[in-house]
Design goal:
This protein is an alpha/beta fold. It has helices at 12-23, 38-43, 45-64, 78-102, 174-185, 205-218, 268-271, 307-322, 351-357, 370-375, 404-417, 421-425, 448-453; strands at residues 3-8, 28-31, 106-108, 112-116, 119-122, 125-134, 138-140, 166-170, 189-194, 221-224, 228-234, 237-242, 247-250, 252-255, 259-261, 294-296, 336-338, 344-348, 360-367, 381-388, 394-400. 32% of the residues lie in helices and 24% in strands. Strand 12 and strand 13 (247-250) form a beta hairpin. Helix 1 (12-23) packs parallel to helix 8 and helix 3 crosses helix 5 (174-185). The relative contact order is 0.13. Bound molecules: NADPH dihydro-nicotinamide-adenine-dinucleotide phosphate.
């Protein structure tokens, strides 16, 4: 065999797996056809977060007045932001490639496909490998209604030459919500259309409602139970015809209606790799496909499509195969952040999910952060703990408010360790902070079921 491990895809999962395996002494080859670092570094988490931060500066500048700063904002320079963002993305992408080379991996900047269960065709060559990892990620789903060809997808935000003044966003998931905050924060008039009654399905209801309130208060036009019927080209932009009978004018229409695994052209059939009904590569918890020495990691398996999950899976597989440390990654209690303005941080079960397992105690705090007592901005922070009544274990912690993803990362350690409400209670708060509310919540929310029984 030419390689001990051949990795197809140089994103979060593939790069980590290849680099750690090479560090363990394996002969590693890795192929990437588009950009090192994959979606996260190039058209996802990293440039998105920089744009959220850009959007936040607008409100921070306004808020500074309350603190005595005489700040005048004269607008936003989109191309200056784009240059700064693209420079950082290029730097990080280069680091990803260098890390692989530094670890001794053979790097191919080309598309790879399986010819059989041990042979890969890459860059006009045939190479053989003992183990193969498929980590080709996913791509945005494009809608199919008439005029859908006029829609942009998430990748396109990062190549737009200027800020669109009027934006329609389709979808109610992570991307649609984050993009609504970014584009609104940078000065666009934003309409977000979601087909169901409340966006962010699967997240805790109080947090979902809280975010909808905050976004509406900021001036975003949120329309629930509403979808696009068709999009047509107008002389200056587009017209979106909606299911509630309206016509919305837009300079850009973004469809953020999910992502699907990249499996086309990989030769999966030739190698005997099985695909699920939803078009993802079927794997067990160790990432093993229907062919025992072929693995699939990250978004191409469409489980929890988050970068830190993908990198953890890549690292665990490299340790298992070449580091003498067999292990798998748990997909339970994976914390996550939604980088809206204000953001969400969450770990564990929502109240609705937890209540399906048995009785729960719910602690909820809603307050105006100290900063806004001075700025006058009408923004609320919301924190919530969902506790299993019988064991007092904290099953879920949820936050909507400034710094929520930063705060929830620490809380997640306690939740993963199985902390009880009493463990939270005996922890001393950091004062004055918003985070201290997580250890000072004492008032249970009245239980509507218990009250009804009285
Ligand atoms: P999501 O799967 O999160 O959300 C898709 C949204 O589109 C849902 O609101 C869904 O509605 C709606 N939708 C799906 N199909 C249709 C349709 N045919 N017509 C109208 N609406 C539709 O996808 P995203 O694209 O937002 O993000 C993809 C994934 O990327 C996320 O799930 C997440 O794993 C990852 N991600 C993570 C981020 C982070 O960690 N901060 C940031 C961005 C992405 P419904 O709920 O009714 O099905």
């Amino acid at each position: 065999m030419d390689f001990d491990l051949f990795v197809i895809g140089g994103g979060s999962a593939g790069v980590r797996c290849g680099r750690i395996a090479a560090g363990h002494g394996a002969r590693v080859g890795i192929a990437e056809a588009r950009f090192w670092g994959g979606t996260c570094v190039n058209v996802g988490c990293v440039p998105k977060k920089l744009m959220v931060q850009a959007a936040e500066y607008g409100t921070l500048a306004e808020d500074a007045r309350g603190f005595g700063w005489d700040v005048a904002v004269h607008g936003h320079d989109w191309s200056r932001l784009a240059r700064a963002r693209d420079g950082e993305v290029a730097r990080l992408s280069g680091i990803y490639r260098k890390l692989l080379e530094g670890a001794g991996a053979a790097v191919f900047e080309a598309r790879a496909r399986l010819l059989d269960a041990h042979t890969v065709e890459v860059d006009g060559r045939r190479v053989t490998a003992k183990h193969i990892v498929i980590a080709t990620g996913g791509a945005p789903v494009r809608p199919t209604f008439p005029g859908a060809e006029h829609c942009l997808v998430s990748d396109d935000l990062f190549t737009l030459p200027r800020r669109p003044d009027r934006v329609v966003l389709l979808g109610g998931g992570y991307i649609a919500c984050e993009f609504a905050s970014i584009l609104h924060g940078l000065g666009a008039k934003v309409h977000q259309l979601y087909r169901g009654p409340l966006f962010l399905r699967g997240f805790d209801d109080d947090i979902r409602e809280g975010l909808a309130e905050e976004m509406r208060a900021a001036g975003i036009d949120l329309r629930f139970d509403c979808d696009a019927l068709r999009v047509e080209k107008a002389h200056d932009g587009f017209i979106v015809h909606t299911t509630d009978g309206r016509m919305l004018e837009a300079d850009a229409v973004f469809a953020a209606v999910g992502r699907r695994p990249n499996i086309a052209g990989l030769g999966l059939e030739d190698a005997g790799v099985r695909v699920t009904g939803r078009g993802a590569i079927a794997v067990d918890e160790a990432g093993r496909t229907s062919v025992p020495h072929i693995y699939a990691l990250g978004d191409v398996t469409d489980r929890l499509n988050l970068t830190p999950v993908a990198t953890a899976q890549g690292h665990a597989l490299a340790d298992t195969l070449f580091g003498g440390n067999p292990r798998t990654v748990s997909l339970e209690n994976v914390p996550t952040g939604i980088f809206t303005i204000p953001p969400i941080g969450t770990v564990g079960l929502s109240e609705a999910q937890a209540a399906k397992r048995g009785p729960v105690d719910v602690y909820l705090a809603r307050f105006r952060p100290l900063r806004h007592a001075i700025t006058g901005r009408d923004r609320k922070t919301l924190m919530k703990l969902v506790v299993e009544r019988q064991t007092q274990r904290v099953l879920g912690a949820h936050m909507l408010g400034e710094d929520a993803p930063e705060i929830i990362q620490g809380i997640a350690i306690a939740v993963v360790m199985g902390a009880t409400k009493q463990d939270f209670d005996r922890t001393i708060g950091v004062h004055p902070s918003a985070a201290e509310e997580f250890v000072t919540m004492r008032q249970k929310r009245p239980d509507p079921l218990a009250e009804a029984a009285e």
